[in-house]
Design a protein that fits this description.
The structure holds two protein chains of two kinds. Chain A is mainly alpha-helical. Chain A contains 19 helices and nine strands. Among the domains of chain B are: 105 residues, Carboxypeptidase-like, regulatory domain (Immunoglobulin-like, Sandwich); 121 residues, Ferric Hydroxamate Uptake Protein, Chain A, domain 1 (Beta Complex), CATH 2.170.130.10. In chain B, the strands form eleven sheets. Chain B has a 22-stranded antiparallel barrel. The two termini of chain B are 43 Å apart. Classes of the chains: A mainly alpha, B mainly beta. At the A-B interface, helix 1, strand 1, helix 2, helix 5 and helix 19 of A face strand 22, strand 25, strand 26, strand 30 and strand 31 of B.
């Protein structure tokens, strides 16, 4: 008896000691990168994942829109302490707003790079493979484009850098940035389909890539290419929506005019910018209030005003118990709110399936018009296409002044104005310093825009600190 | 025995105990034997009974004739008989009890009651895979007796440990019910998880809050490398060993009933502005800025003081405990059975903690050589915790800031709301938030093990310990539709989560204990152990519940599926360990330990870590030359060095993981994607801590005064840190890397004085730890950031090389500009464009231009404060007189800073919130204030940026516990069959001395170890009073 117990204990000990594989474990429910990238499903899953960071609150869900609050269209409103400094050009490199979207842009790039590295080796349907690679090129180009207009050159992380594990790179020059964006967008235009069927609406297509190429070219004063790429879009299956407002209604927001938009789906992946732009008593967070100066820019009777802003006297159906509710002046400190980003569900509450527009055919019309006018050609056809959709009288021999007016009212609140003004100031078409010195009321007092310092925002101090001197700051900061 | 030297009492006790155990083991029970003594030398035969502290017969006590080594031991009924010379005294002793000397005189009958000696040198310490007598211990071990923490009105042993032992700092993370705080042994040992390893009755990995503190026999804290190296795997942050009570063999049944109940109240609230003053200051900020005053501040409807929101929120809490313990045993088996319920309702509505506990411990002698023991603990815990850490929705944060001119409820019964105006801030009515909150977490846990021990040869034992720890956790959270508050939520939702966790432990080891030639005492233990950890769970969430009635808050009712998820994980440890202790002639002590550990958390090839330790001890007081030093009764010097491991980081970090579930939509259709969510670190391996320890034990006055000193240096190497990484990598999780180094060094002191004079008993004890923490290396000289504060994401804490972990980081302020000239002449802003633009005005804060470039920017920040106390101390005084007992326990922390972030925002007029009452003393003209900036809506000068303006001394000294008890005379109680009946009153947090202006200086951690003592308006600790009774029968 005693001996047998002893043997039992000893044998347990020995048995246990031999159990060498007890330390083996696996990541349940997850794959390692070596197990992934097997087939078309994996490729599409990897492509779908590229879009996810776009919609987060620290990117297009809110933060990216803050780069337009210096413009003369809006008062920042809201309660983000760091925003005042952005709006008044008193920010320094430590302002947290500067880094919110930085890493999310790079996350999209990182996921795009992973697709560009791994998908070519997957054996799958060629059309699907082309689309997937095209999406990756488009998104990478789009991200570097946003980096370019906000910060200038940034580290260009491409496939070879990922493979070499090289992330702490020097900033690329403006020219290198433009070349890379252009290359990516050309590849995307080549690989992507002309359009998508209903299940894939929201993925970029040839029109998205060419439209962005047109914009890139215009920002480089390359008017010929702006016209060339722009015309390809205008000749493509991307007609203006019948009604300007169709672009900002949930039911029609993915109409062909919407060349690219950040998609939102209630209860799944929601665009919080919808909440940010809505009055507080209506369930919003009350950011980005339009100022009187923008309202005054609209021509008498321009229907676009009604769908761009809420004005006192507007009756809005908030759904549910509240039903039709008047918009009153005390909902806003400027008296107005942007309307382009909100709609309500019949049972009440904000409809969170409201997209964030990035690029519309109307924008491309105005890009082509601007390129034509600035290269001495006539842009009437393009500018009037936009005007006539909203019942405006056609123009003849439209000038840059007309074009500037048209862009302001057509694209108000769509994160364009501050960058437009910088582009025109560089070209000597407007005086941004004087414009921003204008007293637009107590909430929007004169501000000091310093040339050339404020053409670009500061590189986030955090990134400079972490790069150990590899990243350099923009001049003046 | 050595005839030349008088034998120390302790030695004698020990040897007699060994002798008795030997008798017990080899003779039939009940046949105690007196030594062979020639009859004619002795004059008197005496008889007697030895009783323990509860009046039960005590077998095995040693009774000797004073000045000789002649004696006997008491039998199974506690009886003894001994023949003694005339005029003799007898000495009665037993391990763990105070030795008594009694004059025989003419008496022949004795009834001797033994008194438990909780601090004697004979104390046996549980040291991991065995026990050691305290005097033989060469490492640093602190021990807390269960009696010291019994019936304190706290949810768990962690709280009760606070201040009880030097080097053991229990950091209270606020006072929410059931929040047990963080235990830090010898400083914060690492930037990652620095919690010590908890071992409950031999099973590593449990939770202190699961144990009913009244079931605890003792808690041992292994502090230095030599003591804890036997648990090398997870010992780098110290080891806490909890031993629960057990029954004794041949013990009659004994019931013990503990019950107490009490109330708790807020100690302090923050004075905030009343409605009229608030409106005045809000108007002033518009006037100062030349802006039109928002009409809401002119509206008299909101200028009548209506509600003190903190008083509304902080009501009266309650604490209730009832437990019953039954112990007993016969010749072959003994048991302890206990059940209890503890319930704590917090001061804030809907914050509760409830624990139902059950415990069964038993021991069985199968044969003289074969013993089996068993422990089983079943616990069910239910916890409801409010959010008190958010500076956007925290419920106490909200109460400080909600408009004081609004009622709790409107006349129609609805909750008041700041939807009235954006000027009232985006805060929901805190009473609404708290009363409509519906969440709770329930967990059912099991902790059990079976231990078997077989003695092959004398002193050589084979032992096995098989254990199971299991937990089922169930989370429930229902969010109602909120339409009438400013932070609206248009849809309701229910989330449930369910997780099963179990851990299997197997330990097989041999131990060998022998004394050779009365001089060489050898103790060896060695073996092999494995522990596996399995976790498996799922969660689901649905939206759109048509009916929000409580009986409809089930997943079935929700109309829209929101999410379903689930996952599983497995981790394992395998280890070989050994310890040899050698003691020569009770004078020279050596302990050597070695452990080799494998962890599944690391890649094959990096899995095994090797952790050696050794220590030496010299009991100087046993040396011949020391025998004349009369006033020192014990003196021991120890020293040791060892290496310990830490692998307390997430597993599988050596793999590049692709996670699916990345959400997006196309054309209104849900899609999921898959992306790499973690960068791999192929080289990840053990973090280690190397510790050197020197100890000194001194006993004075026959050991009535005991002192213990320890000095240590603990160096953490290859510290596992996920460093901040350049954004160009994206947002994938950065893996832990073995890059940091950290040093904790310090001095610990423990003092105890006790005296027993007839009816009077008193003791005074104190402990203090002086610990310095410094990060000695971080990757690339960078810093590690921490949790940001509030909407404007203010940085409060940074961890820098050369400074303590979680140092406060910010600007330096130097008063307030009183005049325009003082701004114009200020070299701090000589080149600051804001000055020329008129953005700095009188009433703004003067910040110091640390880098001398004439402008205030990011470069002008530095480390401005240290959140770690220079000294943590505890003082305990106990007084017993007859049937009365009194105990006072004081706790203190000194030499540290608190960053009062709540006040920083509380006097900041740019937020649309109520402000601290002191804001009325703001700067509003030359000379009006040099502390509180002017009222403005603008942030041009960022007056309320993170600066030393909001740094305060955190030093405090508080009467943590006060207990007054009365035990009914036994003659009274014994008539009704009650052995002991004690009634008591307990006060918790009775008073506090502190200069800190916030609610409570015990703020704790807010972001792992990376942020400490930052005031976010945490759930404060309460003052509580309880009454209770303990009845034994």
């Amino acid at each position: 008896m005693k001996n047998s117990i002893l043997y039992l204990l000893l044998s347990c000990t020995l048995l246990a000691a031999c159990e060498d594989n007890i330390l083996e474990t696996v990541p349940y429910g997850q794959s390692t990168s070596s197990q992934f990238w097997r087939n078309a499903d994996d490729a599409v899953a990897a492509a779908n994942a590229m879009y996810e960071p776009l919609v987060v609150e620290d990117f297009y869900g809110h933060a990216e829109h803050t780069f337009d609050i210096p413009s003369d269209d809006q008062f920042r409103a809201g309660d983000h302490g760091e925003d005042q400094a952005i709006e008044s050009f008193t920010f320094d490199a430590g302002n947290p707003q500067l880094f919110y979207s930085w890493r999310h842009k790079y996350e999209v790039i990182s996921r795009a790079n992973a697709v560009l590295i791994n998908v070519p080796d997957i054996s799958m349907d060629q059309n699907l493979k082309d689309r997937t690679l095209g999406e990756a090129h488009f998104l990478r180009g789009f991200m570097y484009w946003r980096f370019l207009v906000i910060y200038g050159g940034v580290p260009l992380i491409l496939e070879e850098d990922v493979l070499a594990n090289e992330y702490n790179k020097e900033r690329a020059s403006m020219e290198e940035m433009q070349a890379q964006i252009s290359a990516d967008l050309l590849a995307a235009a080549d690989l992507l389909p002309e359009s998508h069927d209903a299940d894939d609406l929201g993925r970029p297509h040839k029109g998205s890539a060419r439209g962005l190429l047109a914009k890139l070219s215009l920002y480089q004063d390359d008017f010929a290419n702006a016209i060339e790429y722009g015309q390809q879009v205008l000749n493509g299956p991307y007609p203006l929506a019948a009604d300007f407002a169709d672009n900002f209604r949930v039911e029609t927001q993915n109409n062909p005019e919407m060349l690219f938009a950040i998609q939102s789906l209630q209860g799944w992946q929601e665009n919080t910018h919808v909440i940010y732009t809505t009055p507080r008593p209506w369930g919003g967070w009350d950011f980005h209030e339009p100022v009187q100066d923008l309202i005054d820019e609209f021509e008498e009777g321009d229907p676009r005003l009604d769908y761009t802003v809420y004005q006192p006297g507007d009756m809005v159906d908030l759904g549910g118990d509240r039903g039709v509710t008047p918009y009153t002046e005390d909902l806003s400190s400027t008296g107005y709110h942007f309307r382009k980003y909100s709609s309500w569900r019949p049972q009440g509450g904000l409809n969170m399936s409201h997209n964030s527009p990035i690029l519309r055919t109307a924008d491309v019309y105005l890009i082509v018009a601007e390129a034509k006018i600035r290269s001495g050609l006539n842009g009437d056809a393009e500018i009037n296409a936009v005007r006539e959709r909203s019942g405006r009288t056609p123009m003849t021999n439209a000038t840059m002044e007309d074009l500037i007016h048209e862009r302001r009212v057509e694209l108000a609140g769509e994160n364009q104005r501050h960058q437009d003004l910088i582009r025109w100031d560089k070209a000597g078409l407007v005086d941004i310093v004087a414009l921003y010195q204008k007293d637009l009321g107590p909430l929007k007092p004169p501000r000091n825009f310093e040339r050339p310092k404020h053409y670009l925002f500061a590189i986030p101090q955090r990134e400079i600190d972490l790069s150990n001197g590899v990243l350099t700051q923009n001049p003046g900061y | 025995m050595n005839e030349k030297l008088p034998i120390k009492r302790g030695t004698r006790n020990f040897l007699f105990a060994v002798q008795f155990l030997a008798l017990l083991a080899f003779c039939l029970p009940g046949t105690s034997q007196a030594n062979e003594i020639p009859e004619n030398v002795w004059d008197l035969t005496i008889q007697g009974t030895i009783l323990d502290e509860n009046g039960q017969p005590m077998p095995g006590a040693t009774i000797t004739v004073a000045g000789s080594n002649t004696g006997t031991v008491s039998d199974i009924d506690g009886k003894f008989s001994l023949t003694v010379p005339d005029q003799a005294s007898i000495v009665v002793s037993f391990i763990g009890y105070t030795t008594q000397t009694i004059e025989v005189g003419n008496r022949t009958e004795f009834t001797i009651q033994m008194i438990a000696d909780e601090t004697s040198l004979n104390e046996v310490l549980v040291v991991g895979y065995g026990t050691q007598e305290k005097r033989d211990v060469t490492g640093a071990v602190s021990s807390i007796k269960g009696g010291d923490i019994q019936n304190l009105p706290v949810s768990g042993a962690a709280q009760a440990l606070q201040g009880r032992a030097a080097g053991v700092n229990v950091v209270r993370n606020g006072g929410a019910p059931g929040n047990q705080g963080s235990i830090r042994i010898r400083g914060t040992g690492t930037l990652n998880n620095a919690d010590p390893l908890i071992i409950i009755d031999g099973v590593p990995g449990g939770n202190l809050n699961d144990v009913n503190p009244n079931n605890i026999e003792s808690i041992e804290v292994l502090k230095d490398a030599s003591a804890s190296a036997i648990y090398g795997t997870r010992a780098a942050n110290g080891v806490v060993i909890v031993t629960t009570k057990r029954g004794d063999f041949d013990q009659p049944l004994k019931f013990e009933l503990n019950g107490y109940t009490g109330v708790s109240n807020a100690i302090k609230t923050i004075d905030v502005l009343e409605a009229p003053d608030l409106a005045l200051l809000k108007r002033e900020r518009y006037t100062n800025d030349g802006l039109a005053i928002n009409p809401i501040w002119e509206n008299p409807a909101y200028q009548t003081q209506q509600t003190n929101w903190q008083e509304e929120l902080l009501g009266q809490g309650s604490t209730r405990n009832m437990d019953l313990t039954l112990t007993g045993g016969n010749k072959n088996s003994s048991f302890m059975l206990s059940g209890g319920v503890f319930e704590e309702k917090g001061m804030i509505t809907n914050s509760n903690f409830r624990r139902l506990s059950f415990r069964l411990n038993s021991d069985h002698k199968i044969s003289d050589r074969f013993k089996i023991g068993q422990n089983l603990q079943l616990v069910s815990i239910n916890q409801v915790s409010p959010n008190t850490l958010s500076a956007q929705t925290g419920v106490l944060w909200s109460a400080i800031r909600f408009h004081p001119g609004l009622p709790v409820r409107n006349e129609d019964g609805s909750y008041s709301s700041s939807q009235i105006s954006g000027e009232f801030g985006d805060i929901n009515n805190p009473i609404f938030t708290q009363e409509t909150q519906d969440n709770n977490n329930t967990s059912h846990k099991l902790l059990g093990n079976v231990q078997a021990e077989y003695e092959i040869l004398e002193g050589l034992k084979v032992r096995a310990n098989l254990g199971l720890e299991g937990a089922i956790s169930d989370g429930y959270n229902f969010n109602i539709i909120v339409n009438d508050q400013i932070r609206a939520s248009p849809r309701n939702s229910l989330s449930r989560s369910y997780n099963e966790y179990y851990s299997l432990l197997a330990e097989y080891f041999i131990s060998y204990d022998r004394v050779f030639a009365d001089l060489h005492k050898v103790n060896f233990v060695g073996g092999y152990t494995t522990q596996t950890f399995n976790s498996d769970g799922f969660n689901a969430s649905k939206l759109d519940f048509i009916d929000e009635s409580f009986d409809q808050r089930f997943l079935d009712v929700g109309q829209t599926l929101n999410s379903i998820g689930g996952g599983k994980s497995y981790d394992a440890l395998a280890s070989y360990f050994g310890r040899v202790a050698y003691d020569y002639d009770e004078r020279y002590l050596v302990t050597a330990t070695f452990r080799s550990d494998g962890s599944s958390k690391f890649a094959p090839g990096n899995r095994w870590g090797y952790f050696p330790a050794f220590s030496l001890g010299w009991r100087i007081s046993e040396e011949a030359f020391f025998q004349n030093v009369g006033f020192i009764s014990n003196l021991k010097l120890t020293g040791g060095w060892g290496s310990l491991g830490n692998q307390n980081v997430p597993g599988l970090q050596y793999l590049a993981l692709i996670s699916s579930g990345r959400r997006y939509s196309f054309g209104g259709n849900q899609t999921v994607g898959a992306a790499q969510t973690r960068i791999p670190n192929l080289n990840i391996t053990w973090e280690s801590a190397q510790m050197t320890n020197f100890g000194l034990d001194i006993g004075f006055l026959e050991n009535r005064l005991l002192a213990n000193f320890n000095y240590f240096i603990k160096d953490t190497k290859d510290m596992l840190i996920a460093p901040p990484t350049i954004g160009s990598i994206g947002t994938a999780q950065i893996p832990n890397q073995n890059i940091g180094e950290l040093r904790n060094q310090g001095l610990e002191m423990e003092l105890l004085f006790r005296e027993n004079k007839g009816k009077l008993f008193y003791s005074v004890s104190g402990n203090a730890s002086f610990i310095k923490n410094e990060v000695t290396q971080l990757a690339d000289g960078n810093f590690i950031g921490s949790r940001l504060y509030g909407r404007s994401s203010q940085e409060l804490s940074r961890t820098y090389e050369g400074f303590p972990i979680a140092s406060f980081y910010g600007w330096r302020a130097d008063g307030i500009y009183q005049t325009t000239e003082s701004i114009q002449n200020d070299p701090n802003v000589a080149n600051d464009p804001r000055r020329s633009e008129g953005l700095i005005q009188p009433g703004d804060v003067r910040f110091i231009d640390l880098n001398g470039d004439g402008l205030i920017d990011e470069q002008d920040r530095e480390v401005i404060g240290n959140p770690h106390p220079k000294v943590v101390y505890g003082l305990n005084a106990e007084l017993g007189y007859g049937n009365f007992d009194l105990s006072l326990f004081f706790l203190g922390n000194a030499g540290f800073d608190i960053y009062n972030a709540d006040r920083m925002q509380g006097i900041d007029p740019t937020y649309p919130f109520n402000m601290y009452a002191e804001t009325i003393n703001r700067w509003n003209g030359q000379g009006s204030s040099n502390e509180i900036p002017r009222m403005t809506t603008k942030r041009d000068n960022l007056n309320h940026r993170t600066s030393d303006l909001f740094l305060e001394k955190g030093d405090f000294f508080r009467l943590k516990n006060l207990v007054v008890g009365y035990t009914l005379p036994e003659m009274l109680t014994s008539r009704v069959g009650v052995t002991k009946a004690r009634f008591y009153v307990t006060g918790q947090n009775v008073f506090i001395l502190t200069g800190y202006t916030g609610m409570d200086p015990e703020l704790g951690y807010t972001d792992g170890n990376l942020q400490l003592n930052a005031d976010f308006a945490q759930y404060p600790q309460a003052r509580s009073w309880t009454i209770g009774t303990t009845i034994t029968f």
